[in-house]
Each structure stands twice: as C-alpha cells, then as structure tokens.
Write a structure and sequence with these properties.
By secondary structure, this protein is mostly helical. Helix content is 67%, strand content 0%. It is elongated and about 70 Å long.
C-alpha cells in the first residue's frame, strides 16, 4: 500500500537522454559540442566531395577541426570522445578535399 501514497516520478523527455551522458550527471555543453563537431565534420566531408563547394568544405573543415579539438578537451565521457574523433576526422578529410579542389578562396 505504501506505493499508492508515493508520488510518481516524472521521466525526462527522450531527447534529453542522449547516450552520450554518463555517470548520472547531465553534460549539455559537452553533448552539444560533440554533436556540433560531428555535424560540421559531416557537412565539411559532404561539401568536400563536390568540386564547386571547395570554399565551404575548406572553411567548415577548419572550423570543425579546431572546434573538435576544443570539444575533445572539455569532453566528459567516452561516447562524447568517440563522436568527437569521428567529427575531427571527417573535418580533416573535408578540409583536405576542399584544399585539393581549390582552397579557401574562390
């Protein structure tokens, strides 16, 4: 009967429970930086494939590369670090393809 008198716990929304967190503490800044690094790296890689988008690929790759290093520096959990490494590598490949296709200036 004691269960009937206890208030029920509210569950957090599903978007707040990313598999990047750990240790029982939320890391919204670190999670956001990891996801941003991954997104910018993926965008730089995709832009690097196309010759006409070499300027965007070069700049996005450079921003993602250095932003990924900062995100790696402040990361708190292993899944965040893994996502950072994937984003950093994608950024590096994107900037390399962008420089190969024409560089930073149109």
């Amino acid at each position: 009967m004691s269960r009937a008198t206890r208030p029920t716990r509210r569950r957090a929304p599903t978007f707040a429970r990313l598999p990047l967190g750990g240790g029982g503490e939320p890391h919204p800044l670190e999670n956001g930086l990891s996801l941003a690094t991954f997104a910018v790296g993926l965008l730089a890689f995709v832009c690097g494939i196309f010759t006409a988008a070499h300027v965007a690929a070069s700049w996005l790759g450079l921003i993602g590369f250095w932003g990924g290093f900062y995100s790696q520096y402040v990361s708190a959990t292993t899944p965040e670090r893994a996502l950072n490494v994937v984003g950093i590598v994608a950024s590096f490949v994107g900037v390399a393809l962008g420089v190969y296709h024409g560089g930073f200036i149109p």
